[in-house]
Prior knowledge:
The structure holds two protein chains of two kinds.
Chain A: E1 4-13, E2 16-26, E3 29-34, H1 41-48, E4 56-61, E5 64-65, E6 76-79, H2 91-101, H3 107-117, H4 133-145, E7 151-154, H5 163-178, E8 182-187, H6 190-196, E9 199-204, E10 207-212, H7 214-222, E11 226-232, H8 235-243, E12 248-254, E13 259-264, H9 267-280, E14 285-290, H10 295-304
Parallel strand pairs in A: 3-8, 3-9, 6-7, 7-8
Antiparallel strand pairs in A: 1-2, 1-4, 4-5, 9-10, 11-13, 11-14, 12-13
Helix pairs in contact in A: 2-3, 2-4, 3-4
Chain B: H1 4-7, H2 29-41, H3 47-66, H4 70-96, H5 99-104, H6 108-111, H7 117-148, H8 154-179, H9 183-201, H10 210-221, H11 233-256
Amino acid sequence: MSVLEIAGVSRWFGNVVAVNDVSMTIGPGVTGLLGPNGAGKSTLISMMAGFLAPSAGAVTLDGVPTWRNVEIYRRVGLVPDREGMYDGLTGWQFVLANAKLHGLADPEAASHRAVTTVEMDDARDREVATYSKGMKQRIKMASALVHDPAVLLLDEPFNGMDPRQRLHLMELLRDMAAAGRTVLFSSHILEEVEVLATHIEVVVAGRHAASGDFRRIRRLMIDRPHQYIVRSSDDRALASALIADPSASAVELDTDRKQLLVQAVDFERFVLLLPQVAQQAGVRLHEVLPSDESLESVFSYLVSSR
Amino acid sequence: MSDTRTTVPLAGGPTAGSAPRRSMSPINPVVVRLTLRVLLGRRRGLLFLALPALVLLLALALRWAAGVDHIVTVSYLSTFAIATVLPLLALIAGTGVIGPEIDDGSIVYLLAKPVPRWHISVSKLLVAIGCVTVFGAVPIAAAALLMSGTYGGIAIGFFVGAVLAGIGYCALFLLLAVVSRHAVVFGLTYALLWESLIGNFVPGAQTLSIQQWALAVTERIVTVELPTASVSLRVAVPALVIVTVLASWYAGRRLRSLSLAAEE
């Protein structure tokens, strides 16, 4: 079994810090690297895959640095995010070329096995240029699996896949993890990571924001102050009724826009309470909007709370 | 650690024998084949036919207009074929064997392999040199034969010169493509501005010119006097060797630490 160790790693490009002092250990099983776009996920994966030198810190695979070390590719399979992949070749030729570049003893058998694993047998003799995005993703996957690697790194693998392909890939990754492999994939979609990953690492704005199983991450995301915008028939009466309950920590009356800004500390309690309080105070609710539900704000809360 | 991959078969499939087969040769046949496909499969591969066709057509036209005139042959081959067409071909081949793959990211499938990176650059250099020889040196020799027959070693002299210039140019342009995304601009600037323009006015600039080094060798073989060659053989040959070896070495080294930065 293989372990990727990221120890105090930073990476900057000129004045821009893409990854800021991140430490994490990726072991066997499926790990999800979760974060909004631009958080530094791809930069981290590039460093893990030996395609980018850390500006500070070290990235090692079983104790050996991944940078400038082509020997790691005997154990690492990489599914890049970018599309470029020798479009003039057929899927089969592409996978076979990868097998031969690995110097496998029986490249045909290995390619056959990999193409079958990703269920691309029927389309294997078509040119890569004619593939849909999901098919390209699968043939990339086959090329990364062809040498039976202990570590599989996937950069946004579910992008552009339809639900059926998504499920199939998830099943495949689960099987690989069950066989003792170290599988790491990045995503900006919480639900995707939640259903697949047994372990989640959250990065936001280049920082390591949270780490744990999905229950822990979900709890972290729910147990935070939520902001709501509420419009009602009588904002002032509703405000006084809401602040009387401990589930709300602040209520702001915005008379210009005729709305209430409510800060809820106990999310579940508040959601149940609001209609009751309104009814008791004889106030009609016109609109209730969560004002900061974007993934970015959820993530930045995680960073600021550390 | 390496045993786990043989004891844990890939889910759902039979275990393939994956004992590594090591090759000592720096020329990787898979890299050569993939590179040839990329280079000749693209539309700009048509230039590989258009440029030599132009060399041959002009040679025919000159032969028809001027008759057999060895001075015209030598002047045509050195100022047009070697000085203009050959660097252009080498620029297309030298940058084309690696630049597009770096641009579209497909190079990652070559680099994420247990293959020394300099094997990849040497294999690609070989493809570029092969193309320039087939589409540049051979048509130049054919043009010489069309215009002057086998007289004065012109055909063989210019063939050798074209091959040598092709090797030097390809090594340099491949290096440019590895270090810069604007390799074609830099390459054109060097070949057309430095070698052709400045080289014609500033004698010292000719000492630093692949074209002049190659022509120095040609001049040694050909019995007709060349209009331009001005560098001595004692400078030209070592310079050509040093530039080729250094450029190839540095390209391999840069490929070893090529950053494929993410686009987020």
